[in-house]
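Can't attach files on this board, so I'm pasting raw text. These are the components:
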Amino acid sequence: MTTQASELGSDFSKDLLTLDELSPSEFRSLLDLSEILKNERQQRKFLHQTPGSSLAILFEKPSTRTRVSFEVGMFELGGHAVVLNSKELQLSRGETPEDTAKVLSVFCQAIAARVYSHETLERFSKGSNVPVINALSNLYHPCQALADFLTIKEFKKKLRGLAIAWIGDGNNVCNSLLIGAALSGANFTVACPEKYRPLPEALDKARYLSRSSGSQISIIESPREAVIGADVVVTDTFVSMGEDGEKEERLREFLPEYQVNDELMSLAKPDAIFMHCLPAHRGEEVSSSVIDGPQSVVWQEAENRLHTQKALLYSLLRRPKGQKDKALFGN
Ligand code: CP
Ligand code: NVA
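---
Top answer:
Structure tokens for the assembled complex are below.
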């Protein structure tokens, strides 16, 4: 008998700002629920399990995948997404993030936000009475990490013990992937220049979690060393949103050594997959031959944003009133 999403008793309601808020079993359950929701969608059995729920989703930066997957996800769950551009809110005229979140949480059962400074999310969380989801900050991108681990699980049939190589900038996506790897027992090697290492706080969180999960977490400089024997090779832009002023310097630091191209991929396992959260910059962090080649799973990865976010929203919004469980956070 196949399990249906409606039979799963997902029961947590809290912020998701880094990924570290999830226990290993909550992380596993979210991925399991995502698989079920994906299957149900493929069978066109839309669930409408959260009728009447509204999500406020606020953007300080551009977005294609995150915006559309949240909006469509809410629609498919029977709820509604209110998409807000921060420039059009009173935030742009000085209303504080705390006050803004307090008001949004009167109208909506969850708040998602894409911000320049991670601190803004923490201030939203302080003011909000409903869960706050990080839709990307300068430091973390937990929703991307959920989709990435679902993708890896689909292609590799497991997570524990896999060798994942991150090549390039130790950025927001890398920080959340580090935590995801440590939650799931996957081994994670970051190859980056000394100056572009991941956030020390993310590394500490990952190393702490890895003590129970057995993940091996390594930070090295050589991309070649990192990809030898890898099951998964991942990269992202060398110039994230908000870093355009550093573009020339960054491209000088990363190129040509850190580009994922055919030569680098040839050092990974023959059945290794290539991943990228998108948007991609062909000729910079990845060659066209790799991202458009047979080992690339980037389109499946992008699709999985929808399924994992639906699982997250479903788990958060099924609780009565969508109230944030303050006890879990002590705030
Ligand atoms: N990967 C990702 O977050 O894409 P968008 O910037 O298009 O939302
Ligand atoms: N690291 C990139 C991810 C984009 C989805 C950025 O922050 O711009």
